[in-house]
Amino acid sequence: MPRYFFYLRDESGNLQEDPEGQEFSDLAGAEENAMASAKEILAEELLRGKPVRTGLAFEIFDENHRLVLHFPFAFAAEKAGPPP
Question: Tens digit of pLDDT per residue, the chain (84 long)?
């Protein structure tokens, strides 16, 4: 299975690298994980009384370290989904 790396870019442009990555059958699976993870991060911040940081984004890289998907948290905040 292909491995995807989920880097986190903040509003200032800083990038937190993901040294381990995760395996998914395809990019669609990685995108579903990005959606769920972004929603979880946004929800946790709201529960702690912090403002919603929709300026965050996942930059997903493949095994060859090529950027294959830019996933803004704003997209996750706009989409309804199943409850946790």
Answer: 999 999 999 999 999 999 999 999 999 999 999 999 999 999 999 899 988 888 999 999 999 999 999 999 999 888 766 555
Question: DSSP assignment, residue 48?
Answer: T
Helix (H) or strand (E) holding 45: helix 27-47
Q: Are 44 and 75 in contact (CB under 8 A)?
A: no
Q: Which residues pair with 71 in a beta bridge?
A: 58
What's the gap between Cα 28 and its chain centre? Answer: 13
Residue the block writes with tokens 């890289």: 61
What residue segments make up the domains of the chain, in order of their start? 3-78
Strand pairing partners for 25? Answer: none
Amino acid at 61: F
Instruction: Provide the 10 A C-beta neighbour count for residue 73.
Output: 23
- The amino acid at residue 42 is L
